[in-house]
Amino acid sequence: MTTEKTIDTAALCEQYQMNTYSRTATLVRGRGSRVFGPQGNQYLDFTSGISVLALGHAHPAVVEAIKNQAETLVHASNLFYTPPVGLLAEKLSKIGLGGKVFLCNSGAEANEAMIKLARLWGSQHGGKYEIVCMRQSFHGRTIATLSATGQSKVQKGFDPLMPGFVFAEFNNLDSVRAAITDKTVGILFECVQAEGGVIPATQEFMDGVRALCDEKGLLMMLDEIQCGMGRTGTLFGFEHYNVKPDLCSLAKAIGGGLPLGALLATPELSEVFTPGSHGSTFGGNPVACAAGLAVLRVMEEEHIVEHAAKYGELFRKGLEQFVEQYDDVLAVRGMGLLLGLVLKEPRAKDVQDELRAGGLLACVAGPNVVRFLPPLNLTDGDLEEALEMIGDALDIVFGGEEENA
Ligand SMILES: *Cc1c(COP(=O)(O)O)cnc(C)c1O
After folding, report:
1. Could you tell me if 62 and 254 are in contact, meaning their C-beta atoms sit under 8 angstroms apart?
2. What does the alpha-carbon distance between residue 17 and residue 40 come to, in Å, rounded to a whole number?
3. Cβ neighbours of residue 222 under 8 Å, at least 6 residues apart?
4. Is 138 a catalytic residue?
5. Is 8 one of the annotated active-site residues of the chain?
6. Average pLDDT of 335-349?
7. Can you point out the beta strands (E) in 190-282?
8. Ligand 1 binding site (Cβ under 6 Å of any ligand atom)
9. pTM of the entire structure?
10. Hey, which of 104, 225, 280, 371 would you mutate to test ligand 1's pocket, going by the most ligand atoms within 8 Å of its Cβ?
11. Which pLDDT band holds residue 405 (cuts at 50, 70, 90)?
């Protein structure tokens, strides 16, 4: 019999799975902030499955919700009503934009729904369809969402791209204003450009876009897929700015590790979709929705958002030491527990590799930025241990430079 110890998982994935990812380690089990490899080797996980596992791996409340729902009703399709779907939609509406919700299975699908709703609304408001997007953004890998993504590395080779997306410079209101035409229906961006380098929007930009949308009758469309659900120290990234969008997409952390995405709308935009205008076979899967309800319940009961804000500040202070210490570390960027260590040289991958060798898993955000996405229920012990491992990795990569700094 083969077991996880005897099969070569990496070799199987490399041989039989299409070559879309560059992977580095095999993981077989996770618990809290820790993940384990087949030989029992252990890592402290500061990727959280790319901002998905807000409560860490195998949180008991999430596991229990998944088990219970799996035994009750795994799938029904959207031909029928099911309890977890109704309860989650209610919850998301109340904590979000006050209107109705469309449920789907991923971030790209949530953005697809947002783009479709905006176009449908635009078709009823003078035939508008163009969406102003930002350079360095990331919105997903489907043809529509990669066409809305302002990064050539994501778009290269997939021409012709979908028409109807124009690009402006992030945090530059003049650039956005110049991109608006009489065909513009909305402005789409992330409060914190995550994949694009962990770059927060400025207050001026958020206020300016909101005012522009109000003045010209455009939809303010926020992609909160990575920066939402408490990641930045508020439930939604936009709360930092005291600005509300008209539409907002969620995914990643909302399903507690199961595939789940959502489009949230204001009451005014809640009736744009009608039966037949959009849909998904799996969207709003009862098990994923039950997991999502458990995540939201724990986040409320354990004050996880406040915790993320507090520990985000502690982590930031810890990382700022390295800016002092190393000439090769330029800055700490981000909000809450979505933090990037900005390097002078394109050596983020080298640092990521050394971190992993030392037992800490981290992401990158472009060639110059190491991105940290710890669980939102981060503990003092894990934070201390991570900072120590980050110091060690920087020491190895930048060669004991601190002595002459
Ligand atoms: C991850 C991400 C997406 C895409 O989500 P998928 O679930 O991978 O389709 C879109 N926008 C942002 C900001 C993301 O971080």
Report:
1. no
2. 25
3. 188, 189, 190, 191, 236, 237, 238, 245, 247, 248, 249
4. yes
5. no
6. 98
7. 192-193, 199-200, 219-223, 247-250, 261-265
8. 106-108, 111, 138-140, 190, 194-195, 223, 225-226, 251-252
9. 0.96
10. 225
11. very low
